[in-house]
Design brief:
Helices cover about 0% and strands about 50% of the residues. By secondary structure, it is mainly beta. Strand 5 and strand 6 form a beta hairpin. It is elongated and about 60 Å long.
């Protein structure tokens, strides 16, 4: 078996090519529900990575299949970050003063699921372990991966984090 070890790969001009250094992902295929009006962790939608450099960026791609059990209520999802087990920070936050969550969808038909997604480029400036996860809330019951009117599985949700070389 052969092995090639290099420190960097440079282009023809002699400058270093930048790219993706690592990828971590979690996919949720089971059902999650909560009637909490405040944000709670969505089980199974958590990833952790340790950047190689403080100038690395982290691209987070996330999507949830959501529904609520009552027409006209909002599904709220937020992307949060914790560095080395520290306090969580809501990132990718919108600027609406009444809704301090990353993503939301008002449901007009509780029998249908909505696709809520977010893409965020984070600049954590650390080489400590970073945990990214999704949280959910609603003033009704929010359902992840199923319709609001039954318990049948109906979707999958996921979160992916990619370290981009700085």
């Amino acid at each position: 078996m052969s092995q090639i070890n290099v420190n960097t790969i440079a282009n023809i001009a002699g400058t270093q090519n930048k790219g993706v250094l690592q990828v971590v992902s979690a996919t949720k295929v089971d059902i999650f529900t909560t009637a909490s009006a405040t944000m709670v962790d969505i089980t199974g939608l958590t990833v952790t990575l340790t950047p190689r450099s403080t100038d690395s960026k982290v691209l987070i791609l996330s999507q949830c299949q959501t529904s609520v059990d009552t027409n006209g209520y909002e599904s709220r999802i937020q992307l949060v970050r914790a560095i080395s087990g520290g306090a969580t920070t809501n990132i990718a936050i919108n600027t609406d003063t009444t809704r301090k969550n990353s993503m939301s969808q008002i449901t007009t038909n509780n029998y249908e699921m909505s696709h809520i997604s977010a893409f965020h480029l984070d600049s954590p400036s650390t080489t400590s372990a970073i945990t990214y996860h999704l949280e959910a809330s609603s003033d009704a019951t929010i359902c992840i991966n199923r319709k609001g009117n039954n318990t049948d599985l109906g979707g999958t949700s996921n979160i992916t984090a990619m370290e981009i070389q700085g």
